[in-house]
Amino acid sequence: MKYIISLFSILALTWIISCSGRAGKPSAEPVNTIVEGEEEASASLITMTLPAENTQFRTGETVKVVMAQDTRGEPPDSILIFFDGKPVTTIGPGTWEYTIPSSFTASTGRKSLRVSAYRKGRARTTITRFMIILSDVVPVRNGYRVINTYPHDRNAFTQGLFYHNGSLYEGTGQETGSSLREVELTTGKVLRQLNLEPRFFGEGITLYDDRIYQVTWRSKVGFVYDMATFRQINKIYYQTEGWGLTTVNDRIVMSDGTNVLYFLEPGLFTVVSRLEVYDNEKKADQLNELEYIKGEIWANMWMTDLIARIDPVSGKVIGYINLKGLLKESGTDTDADVLNGIAYDSENDRIFVTGKNWPRLYEIQLTE
């Protein structure tokens, strides 16, 4: 993600992310600068020694800020401190240290720390640093046990999956081959199918208020259908790539192949909030197909055999599910046709998983 720092504000502008089913190219690391007021171009009011750029903390830790007066300039009248874009406190003359409370580090992600030194009512020096908030939880490692297997269409390049009232609903991808389907669980028979226009590469699907939402990969447009008829009733638009979708309470959650989850208001499909997902060591990247299960967001991690279990409030990875060896049938290249597709039957507490062009769909239980 690339950040451009300007006076008084931090604008998140662009990011380059990988596509679903294809390799991507990450953007360059952000460049951080010290910005000075016009009247103080030759001398800053303050300097900052702590924290250093890209210092790592864990959720729930405090952040110590240590500053000093720049000997080349005049002392500030006051200093305002902001963390992750939120105001923290104002400190007066002669106070050079402050500890940001742990309540500000409750969620994971790359966060900004900004201090602005004022003199005579104007911000003369602003210093911005970035830091990484990792999870304070060591993820559990889950295995699996296969409970049942069901037929699955080998021609279904699975991009989205959910279960509702006895049926599976599946969104498939590929150029000229994307669709929305209702599928009979026990036989794999396609009961209904709506094909997308050839120019659209279908991605994740989810159900909200008897409407099915489907996003596409790079077109930045998605569709809303009446679940009963598959009739398109609306279009939705977004600013990033579309990968996975799920529904969490009154929000739709979308992934874009990075470690970021977007929480969207279903009516206008506008971003209400975003969450950067990290475990206790690193970011959980390439999040793909999503499912909301028992208060957790489960996400296929593209090009791996892993499903990440994510706390939707803090962004912490609670656990990883390793499904290596799940597909044992020959004739499927699992290096290309990767694991992708999670569905949950909440009434019967059943979990289903499959992959792109897999011949089988599996009902599984987790093991420790």
Structural description of this entry:
With 368 residues, this protein is mainly β. It contains no helices and 31 strands. The strands form 7 sheets. An 8-stranded mixed β-sheet has the order 25-26-27-28-12-31-30-29, with no helix packed on it. Strands 3, 5, 7, 8, 10 and 11 form a 6-stranded mixed β-sheet that branches. A 4-stranded antiparallel β-sheet has the order 13-14-15-16, with no helix packed on it.
Summarize the structure.
The chain is an all-beta fold and 368 residues long. The protein has strands at residues 2-6, 9-14, 34-36, 46-50, 55-58, 63-69, 78-83, 86-91, 97-100, 109-119, 122-134, 140-151, 158-164, 167-172, 179-184, 190-195, 202-208, 211-216, 221-226, 232-237, 245-248, 251-255, 260-265, 270-276, 287-293, 296-301, 306-310, 317-322, 339-345, 350-355, 360-367.
Tell me the layout of helices and strands.
Elements: E1 2-6, E2 9-14, E3 34-36, E4 46-50, E5 55-58, E6 63-69, E7 78-83, E8 86-91, E9 97-100, E10 109-119, E11 122-134, E12 140-151, E13 158-164, E14 167-172, E15 179-184, E16 190-195, E17 202-208, E18 211-216, E19 221-226, E20 232-237, E21 245-248, E22 251-255, E23 260-265, E24 270-276, E25 287-293, E26 296-301, E27 306-310, E28 317-322, E29 339-345, E30 350-355, E31 360-367
> What is the residue-mean pLDDT, rounded to a whole number?
89
Separation of the first and last Cα atoms? 35 Å
User: CATH fold name of the largest domain, please?
Assistant: Neuraminidase
User: What is the CATH superfamily of the largest domain?
Assistant: TolB, C-terminal domain
* Helical amount: under 10%
Radius of gyration: 24 Å
Structural class: mainly beta
Shape: elongated
Overall tally of structural domains? 2
Give the neighbour order of strands across the main sheet: 25-26-27-28-12-31-30-29
Helix count, per DSSP? 0
Strand content: over 45%
Identify the quaternary structure here: single chain
Could you give the count of β-strands?
31
| Level-1 CATH class name of the largest domain | Mainly Beta
